[in-house]
């Protein structure tokens, strides 16, 4: 009887391990989530400004002067485009993530636009 119980527990543990192997994210997925890769896009300042007006001014102000969020008027002095892309994609502090609201190309365009503000 004890052999059957131990065999059953062993089988359950093996089944659980197999399920975890196929459902947990891999090392590459975790690395991508921690450090998203900025896609290559052609800069479009007008489109970036439109995206910022639609998504950012409520916290960063209509002139990017700051408010609830920090001023972005000279953001290029503080962060490069890749860093800005990562911040907007993942969020930071009180800033929420925009990865589910904006396409990666839109975020990259905004990041490039903001990185030029010095």
Protein model, in words:
Heme c binds at residues 56, 59-60, 95. It comes from Paenibacillus durus. GO terms for molecular function: electron transfer activity; heme binding; iron ion binding. Keywords: Electron transport, Heme, Iron, Metal-binding, Transport. InterPro entries: Cyt_c-like_dom, Cyt_c-like_dom_sf, Cyt_c_BACSU-c550-type, Cyt_C_IC, Cytochrome_c550/c551-like. The chain is mainly α and 118 residues long. It has two domains: 1-34; 38-118, Orthogonal Bundle (Cytochrome Bc1 Complex, Chain D, domain 2). 57% of the residues lie in helices and 0% in strands. The chain contains six helices and no strands. The longest helix has 22 residues, at 2-23. It is elongated, with a radius of gyration of 22 Å.
Q: Which key terms come to mind for this protein?
A:
about 55% helix; Cytochrome Bc1 Complex, Chain D, domain 2; about 120 residues; 6 helices; elongated; mainly alpha; 2 domains
Summarize the topology.
Layout: H1 2-23, H2 27-34, H3 45-55, H4 57-60, H5 81-90, H6 104-115
Helix pairs in contact: 3-6, 5-6
What's the pLDDT, averaged over the residues?
90
- Number of DSSP E strands: 0
The rough form would be described as elongated
How widely separated are the two ends? 75 Å
Low-confidence stretches: none
**Total count of domains:** 2
SSE topology string: HHHHHH
CATH superfamily of the largest domain, please?
Cytochrome c-like domain
Into which percentage range does the β-strand content fall? under 5%
Helical fraction equals 55-70%
* Count of alpha and pi helical runs: 6
Structural class: mainly alpha
What's the alpha carbon Rg, rounded to whole Å? 22 Å
Tell me what the CATH architecture of the largest domain is. Answer: Orthogonal Bundle
Largest sheet: none
CATH topology of the largest domain: Cytochrome Bc1 Complex, Chain D, domain 2
| CATH class annotation of the largest domain | Mainly Alpha
Keywords: Electron transport, Heme, Iron, Metal-binding, Transport
Binding site for heme c: 56, 59-60, 95
Organism: Paenibacillus durus
InterPro entries: Cyt_c-like_dom, Cyt_c-like_dom_sf, Cyt_c_BACSU-c550-type, Cyt_C_IC, Cytochrome_c550/c551-like
């Amino acid at each position: 009887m004890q052999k059957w119980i131990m065999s059953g527990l062993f089988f359950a543990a093996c089944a659980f391990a197999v399920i975890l192997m196929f459902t947990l994210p891999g090392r590459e997925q975790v690395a991508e989530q921690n450090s998203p890769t900025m896609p290559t896009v052609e800069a479009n300042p007008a489109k970036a400004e439109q995206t910022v007006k639609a998504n950012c001014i409520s916290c960063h102000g209509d002139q990017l002067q700051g408010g609830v969020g920090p001023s972005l008027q000279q953001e290029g002095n503080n962060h490069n485009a890749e860093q800005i892309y990562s911040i907007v994609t993942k969020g930071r502090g009180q800033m929420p993530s925009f990865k589910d609201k904006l396409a990666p190309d839109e975020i990259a365009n905004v990041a490039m636009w903001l990185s030029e503000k010095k």
